[in-house]
Amino acid sequence: MIRVLLPWQLSSLTLPTTLEKIHVEFYVDQKEYERKLMEDFWDIIYGPFDERQRSAVFVSNVESFLIAIKYVEIRSKFDECKRTSDILDKHIELQGVKIVETLKTLKKLQIQKPDCFVIVAENGIQVEAYVDYFSNSCYQQVAEKLYKVILDGKKVDIITSSSPIENLINVSIPPLRERKEDIPYMVDKALSWIHQKHKNITVVFPDQHVMRLLTSYNWPGNTEELVRVIYRYASGEDIISCLKDSITVDDIKSMSMREYVSEIVAQVEKQLIQDALQKTSWNRKKAAAMLGLNYKTLSYKIKKYGIKRTKP
User: Fold this and answer.
1) For the chain, which has fewer Cβ within 10 Å, the N-terminal or C-terminal residue?
2) Boundary-marking domain end, from 145, 174, 203
3) Parallel, antiparallel, or unpaired: how do β-strands 116-120 and 154-161 relate?
4) What is the DSSP string of 173-215?
């Protein structure tokens, strides 16, 4: 909403059509001008400059007033984009391309402003990220599964539930197993956060084999489980150990075992080659003999896994 303070003489002025609503108040004399000046925060003020309203645009004629409306509308749109960008950057849950469709649905609801709607999500999905996105970070949690939002003066209730509720608008959040293409983006964001917060931790980003392991797993605990595993991985734990502690019999039944086992074997093989090279000071002949491989096979696997000598 664009808030405007005008002199009474301009009460008959036709305002331009804008995407945002324009709220106008008038003053009849200098005394009322001084009073209303401090009653609210204004976007545009037709009158003499006052440093107490530094963020407002002060104008002195109709032409500059009409230009100011366009300027404030563009500035408001930019501020909205900046807020949205900051919210997206803040949440691991909102990273990726698959989740964009869900975010588009929430954007449509921002325009519709229903009295109430339901966010349907499994355990482990960071539901508050979607509330934050919908509300532009302006919300209040009033109960365990109830949030209050005010958008342009309209109150909207958001209920979170593990299943749809009849006779209400339901927005279903896809579980991580249905948005595996988003996992690399989420892992990248999680690791970036960890490295920013813990400067003493060596920066390690997963190679293609680790990433395949992460995307092969079905993540029954969704984003919360992913974040826990990535924290352990960033602290130096082997990714196989991290996932081994998470996998259950039910998970194994639902996974492509051939692909999953193949990736585990590749990851183990890579680790063994790295260990052998380090123990032999990168003498490939000695490393090959230690591993029971011929020199050519070892060289091929070093290239295949992208193994590079690290500086001591």
Assistant:
1) C
2) 174
3) parallel
4) PPPGGG-GGGHHHHHHHHHHHHHHH-TTSPP----HHHHHHHH
